[in-house]
Amino acid sequence: MTDSHISLDEIRLRLNELDDQLLSLFSERRKLSIEVAKSKVETSKPVRDASREQQLLVKLINNGKNKYDLDAQYITKLFHTIIEDSVLLQQSYLQNLANPQNRKPLARVAFLGSKGSYSHLASREYFSRKNMELVELNCDHFKDVANTVESGHADYGVLPIENTSSGSINEVYDLLQHTTLYIVGELTQPIEHCLVATEEIRIEQIKILYSHPQPHQQCSEFLSRMKGVKLESCVSTADAMQKVKELNRTDVAAIGNSSSGKLYGLQSIQGNIANQTENHTRFIVVARKPVEVSPQIPAKTTLIMSTSQQAGSLVETLLVLQRYGINMNKLESRPIMGNPWEEMFYVDLESHLDSIEMQQAIVELTKITRHLKVLGCYPSENVKPTQVKLA
């Protein structure tokens, strides 16, 4: 129990000391994670060991409860984050070994919108583990992102592909149908929408609301309760916030991220406005050449294919995947431009392209589809939490 004679300043000083100790321990643990990855290079063991992770969590939960009076949920949440970070660090280390030509000190990255857009935040998050200095190239349209990479003016492009609230981003799927680029990575980012304005104003004062069309969709339920508000579309949420800053009026606001709003001198006036509390966007990273994926890393393979117009043609392709035990994460259909009533199917698969099962499946799929192209094989960045039973 805390001594009642200890002053608040002394308590805060002690908390600061403990926080510094935690940072030092986190740093040491990360370094040991890299040593684990080095040992796995020699043994060819996979990055993830589910039984080891389960044993670790059970031990930590028991020790936390019996020795330190810590809640099991608290420990589980904390160590899910630590394990995820360790997995991604090890994956990044192994990927650097598999792709030595990509180990450059500088990376030029194209993304949608100005600095502070969700695509910009995703770009920084993804490359934070790559030990690269970034040259950031903002674009006005998704097509501009692809063109900038295809032309060689950027090494990578970051594109949002789907959202848990508004669904697939069709413009990006249509873009992938015609691009020569490959998917080389992915990440999923939490999207925290809020209303931002130049000063603290009431929601009833807002007459014009700026944002990208996607946040308008993702916050439709909240927006339906705002009466007499005109919705204006911008290239990105960052551009919307920039517009609000330039206008400097008390009757305009933007939908964006509160941290990004601070870059433009804006303040949050209403948070948690998305339709879903768990609002996430999945982004893909594209480049001119595919990457080699270490066989020790969980991988995804993305295909596009078109089938014949005969009944059961799509089912036939799915049965091939089932026969080889390949799990499908995503199936998306988009119209083929110039071919009325014909569809192109995008398929995300939980499988390494070089696996025997995947290679055999592709041979069979090629025979029964009109067109098939591998858009990329890349490390799966979505680290599924280790499951343990909590009493």
TrEMBL record:
PROSITE patterns from the UniProt entry: ACT (PS51671), CHORISMATE_MUT_2 (PS51168), PREPHENATE_DEHYDR_1 (PS00857), PREPHENATE_DEHYDR_3 (PS51171)
Main location: cytoplasm
A GO term, aspect molecular function: prephenate dehydratase activity
Enzyme Commission number(s): 4.2.1.51, 5.4.99.5
Superkingdom of the source species: Bacteria
Catalytic activity: prephenate + H(+) = 3-phenylpyruvate + CO2 + H2O; chorismate = prephenate
Residue ranges occupied by any ACT domain in the UniProt entry: 302-379
Ranges where the Chorismate mutase domain occurs: 2-94
Ranges of residues in domain Prephenate dehydratase: 108-288
Classification via NCBIfam families: CM_P_1, PRK11898.1
Described function: Catalyzes the Claisen rearrangement of chorismate to prephenate and the decarboxylation/dehydration of prephenate to phenylpyruvate.
Name assigned to this protein: Bifunctional chorismate mutase/prephenate dehydratase
Source organism of the structure: Vibrio cortegadensis
